[in-house]
Structures are given as C-alpha cells and as structure tokens.
Amino acid sequence: MRDKGRGIIGAKLIGKGGFIQPDDRDKSIRYAMRCRLLDAAMIGFASTAQIDARPLNG
User: Fold this and answer.
1) Distance in angstroms (rounded) separating the CA atoms of residues 49 and 1
2) Residue range(s) defining the domain that contains residue 42
C-alpha cells in the first residue's frame, strides 16, 4: 500500500471512549503504535476538558 502512496489511519484507539483510566488509554495507543502498521492516528475527545488530560509522557 505504501508504495502506491497510501497509508493506514488508526481510529478509535482509546476504545471509543470506553477506556476511562489514563493507563488503559496509554496502553492502547502504545500497542497500536508499536505494531508499526499505522501511518497516522486520530484521537478524538468527548469534552474539551479531555484536551488538558495527562499526556502520554506525563
């Protein structure tokens, strides 16, 4: 796919909002990125308060 200029986008990496605990979200994102299949990822949020939530490296 990549040789044709296409890639893979990861979506709903944090369980469609089902992963409430920050550690669960971190594990999910880290797993997806470790697989080395994704070229990009979309991380959504349910409220603007989540924008200021603890970052992965925090």
Assistant:
1) 37
2) 2-51
pLDDT of residue 50: 72
In a domain, residue 57? The reply is no
Average pLDDT along the chain, 58 residues, taken 10 residues at a time: 88 81 88 91 78 63
Cβ burial, residue 40 (10 Å; 0-12/13-18/19+) = exposed
Query: Which residues are within 8 A (CB) of 1 and not within 5 positions of it... i.e. 6 or more apart?
Result: 7, 8
Residue 43, CA atoms < 13 Å, CB-side half-sphere: 15
Which residue type, as a one-letter code, is found at position 26?
D
